[in-house]
Prior knowledge:
This protein is α/β, with parallel strands linked by helices. The chain is built from seven helices and five strands. The protein has one domain (3-176): Maf protein.
Amino acid sequence: MNSRAADVVRLLTVKGETLAVAESLTGGLVAADITGVPGASKVFRGSVTAYATELKHRLLGVDPGLLERRGAVDAQVAAEMAAGVREALGADWGIATTGVAGPDPQDGQPVGTVFVAVDGPVRPGSGSAGGGKVEALRLNGGRAEIRMESVRSVLALLLRELAGEHSGNERTQDTERNGGF
């Protein structure tokens, strides 16, 4: 089991908050990791695997003009996917993955180009936590490795955002820094 997924479920449970997931290149792997954790049903609202570009607009509300101009592998697309799934599934937090796992480039982007995003509640005095964050990744390896690293990366991004709201919680910060597969 993914220790990052377990940490996500634990933190969300403590906070009484929920999560929704939007996936493209990971094809449901993020949702599978989270639901593999005992007790995930307390915090996991659901997921949307929008592999086809038009579904990113239709199901997640991604701007169709943005998809036409930049394609599906884009930082802003990832941000809109995270915000869209959060809204569509009524969750406190939304996370998203989009990218190119290979074997061929897509939308002018090389294999290994991945964007992961988180969208969460903005709370007064919470510092940088909440709102939207996107991380651009350039990953090496085969298709399976790129997909698995994308899962690890989006969960790590969410953990950093969740930990940002608990800046006094040393254990949470230490778990994220030293956690992993």
